[in-house]
Design goal:
By secondary structure, this protein is α/β, with parallel strands linked by helices. The strands form two sheets. Strands 3-2-1-4-9-6-10 form a seven-stranded mixed β-sheet, with helices on both faces. Strands 5-11-7-8 form a four-stranded mixed β-sheet. It has helices at about 15-30, 50-60, 75-85, 105-115, 150-155, 170-185, 190-200, 230-245, 245-260, 265-275, 285-295, 300-310, and strands spanning about 5-15, 35-40, 65-70, 95, 100-105, 125-130, 130-135, 140, 165-170, 205-210, 215-220. Helix content is about 45%, strand content about 15%. It contains twelve helices and eleven strands.
């Protein structure tokens, strides 16, 4: 359990022993020392749980509560939602972590400073850019910069920050706790970080995107989702449109978000409803509705891709 005022770090684990220790060491190196860690292991068959046990013993003497729980065994998104659903009430801050990155020392401090001015009671979410690095942590490249502001119209069609950079304030954690249970009951979203962006923005909360990288995002053969940088990533996104994968993700997200529609503002609840009906219309109606909804992705090429997907009835 996490005491009031401390950061609750939530990590999903699955056969992550190869890079886990480096990530754990980066927690210890944080300029914010008041954190506790809960790790949900989704059925690892490697030494990851043993590494966690040793870390828990060492950090317990330093005042950090580290606990390992069993995940639901339904994939990474459900694993993170199960963690969010069990966040202790009153947790001041909740940070999400992957098993194979490296946090820069000010990762938590930057997020807390950015969220500090948000009024009490308003859900808020912080996410940042990343340094994309090789498996050996070399070759730093910054993740893409985003110029348009975060919004629900953007969140419905694009995720703008990795969960491995995200921090929630107290109201954001409270919002996510209840909504995670509702989303899990209908099969969950495509990804937990995209869903969090949709949820907080849809509920009228504040979303802050920091263009300063706060983590080293390690690229290796085991990444479920790799970098979204470069020509290869752009080609992959176009394939997602034509293969129907993007549309499947959108449908899954809509279902998960719809389970918590009562938590959204009236305006955004109506927007979600109209968006869900988009693919049922003919092409002329789809074009008209898409324009009226004001949906957008960051970047011209990205916007062209989502417009094409809408016209083809693929979202």
């Amino acid at each position: 359990m996490t005491a009031p005022g401390r950061v609750a770090i939530l990590m999903g684990l699955y056969n992550g022993a190869a890079h886990l220790q480096g990530q754990l060491d980066s927690f210890v190196a944080q300029t914010v020392p008041d954190w506790d860690l809960t790790v949900s292991d989704d059925g690892s068959s490697d030494d990851g749980p043993a590494i966690l046990a040793r870390f828990a013993e060492a950090q317990g003497a330093r005042g950090h509560a580290v606990r390992l729980v069993s995940g639901p065994g339904q994939g990474f998104a459900a694993n993170f939602l199960s963690l969010l659903a069990s966040v202790p009430e009153g947790a001041a801050w909740v940070a999400l972590s992957d098993q194979d990155d490296i946090w820069l020392p000010d990762r938590l401090q930057r997020g807390m400073r950015a969220l500090a001015p948000v009024p009490d009671g308003m859900p808020a979410l912080y996410g940042s850019a990343s340094w994309i690095v090789s498996e050996t942590l070399t070759g730093h490249h910054a993740s893409p910069r985003f110029s348009r502001p975060p919004s629900f119209q953007n969140a419905l069609v694009q995720s703008i920050a990795g969960g491995n950079t995200m921090l929630l304030n107290r109201a954001g954690a409270d919002l996510a706790r209840g909504a995670a249970r509702e989303a899990l009951a209908v099969g969950g979203p495509a990804t937990h970080d995209w869903w969090l962006y949709q949820l907080v923005s849809g509920a009228g909360g504040q979303v802050i995107r920091d263009e300063t990288p706060t983590i080293l995002y390690r690229q290796h053969g085991g990444n479920l989702f790799g970098s979204n940088r470069g020509l290869g990533a752009a080609v992959s996104r176009i394939r997602q449109v034509f293969s129907g994968q993007l549309g499947a993700w959108v449908l899954q997200n809509n279902r998960a978000l719809g389970a918590s529609a009562h938590r959204l503002t009236a305006e955004n609840r109506a927007l979600l409803g109209r968006f869900a009906e988009l693919r049922t219309q003919d092409m002329v109606a789809r074009a008209r509705i898409f324009r009226a909804l004001g949906l957008y992705r960051q970047g011209r090429a990205e916007q062209a891709a989502i417009t094409l997907a809408a016209l083809l009835g693929r979202i």
